[in-house]
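Technical annex B. To support the medicinal chemistry partners, we prepared a structural model of the target in complex with glutathione, based solely on the information shown next.
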Amino acid sequence: MKLYGYFRSSAAYRARIALNLKGVAWEQVLVDLRAPASMQHTREFRALNPQGLIPVLVDGEAVLTQSLAMIEYLDETHPEPPLLPRAPLPRAQVRALALAIACDIHPLNNLRVLNYLREKFAQDDAGVNAWAGEWIGRGFRALELQAQRLGDGRHLYGDSVTLADVCIVPQVYNAQRYHCDLAPYPTLMAICAYLGNLPAFARAAPQLQPDAA
Ligand SMILES: N[C@@H](CCC(=O)N[C@@H](CS)C(=O)NCC(=O)O)C(=O)O
């Protein structure tokens, strides 16, 4: 499989973790999101994903966009280890945690949104960090409580790695990039400290990717 990604992209980070957990052979195609390269806007890349977003997963002739869809595809085609519980209720609860991150937190600190704040609303680094911190903070306050209720202190949900864990580690990385105060979220931080040492997570870390600056 081929994963189109960029070391700092937290959505690509999720896909890297899942590919590693599943133990499939995969290679990385680097898409430099930074200006002036801005490879996500090239005609060639838009032919692959008209959204102009990474990650993109290519499996043979199949092209998949949206990290959560590709992770569920991997989970269905490579069932071990499962990233979603089988029973409907825990399955929905894990998805809810993952979606809280992928739909409600992450889009507000995506590059194109932050660039828009800079270009159209004249925000500097401090303004951009305050924006990102606000939305990450609102999301993390809820997740901290949910992790205390639903997790075991090492996992966001239950006692094994799930899709929710695949999402929280990259989102905490993003929070650190934007200098968020993470002290109010001791449960989330303990979970990420544990997960970050698992080989599949460790190998997916941004600083270990070939395009890391
Ligand atoms: N919901 C999408 C989000 C993808 C996304 O936002 N990717 C970012 C990097 S984390 C991107 O490609 N940004 C390019 C840009 O903003 O121009 C997913 O989960 O795959």
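Notes passed to the chemistry partners:
Strands lie at 2-5, 27-30, 56-59, 62-65.
The chain is about 55% helix and 10% strand.
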